[in-house]
Amino acid sequence: MKSKGKKKIPHLLSIKDLSRKEILDILCLAEDFKSRKLKKKRPLEGCSIGLIFQKPSNRTRVSFEVGIYDLGGNAIYLRPEDIQLGERESVADVAKVLTRYLDGIVVRTFKHEDLEELAENATIPVVNALSDLFHPCQVLADIFTVQEKIGLENVKIVFVGDGNNVCQSWLIGAAKLGLNFTAACPKGYYPKARIVKEAKKIAGKKAKNITVTQNVDEAVKNADVIYTDVWVSMGQEDETVERMSVFRPYQVNAKLLKKANPKALVMHCLPAHRGEEIASSVIDGPRSIVYDQAENRLHVQKAILTKLFS
Ligand code: CP
Ligand code: NVA
Asked: What's the confidence (pLDDT) of residue 39?
């Protein structure tokens, strides 16, 4: 894991911070946690981890709290009203003070720069639990889920919808592992050009496996996995009306699924808005693996925490 700041502290702000080998180690460790081979492992014994959440959460908060407990540690949930990152006091002061009490900080926030500033000023690991730019813990769990269900060999993954934080983490994760990944997004809602460029650079010889297109029908041809996420991410509520109309042709429904590989699996990071980005018949249908995907957040985060704290 990439270390930032003066001392060598491992942080996980983006999948970029992990080498290919570290990702594979996390996947392997997560498998051991899931099969309960490591049920007695308690690497967080005596550790307290702060969970700063500036946005709501079900999966991320609960899976981190349960995971920290399972690993022998103590989780302290800090509500948006408690910390008020950068408002009640500076981001740097939050980092410097929490460093004196805690052994690690898990942070869900708006500006990715706030996470970077926390990492610069904390001498304990900082983990991104979602920012406007990336959602690395989600995508590591997603990659684990794809591996578990169909393997990662020659798999074609198509992300349909908004080129958002989840899509951008997928770009980096897919690039690190040399996976075939396409983002099908409406014009104006592509992932950030610099992140696509960076993903292609990371993918090296496999750069052509990373594509972004507006043509969703073409993109889903031969797809093994169709992935979607909400059209309006947390913090974008003011854009709801416009987004509902722009994204309409990008709904994952039975008609779109017919254009993919007949065995294609459907993924969604959740929370889902049935009838918007995904039809009820699809998310509740036989191809959907969304609840296994949600469960895997727990196993993969336990693997991430174990790596960070060992
Ligand atoms: N997928 C995900 O991060 O869910 P929450 O927002 O509920 O944590
Ligand atoms: N893109 C969504 C993901 C929620 C888990 C958001 O940021 O709100």
From this structure: 77
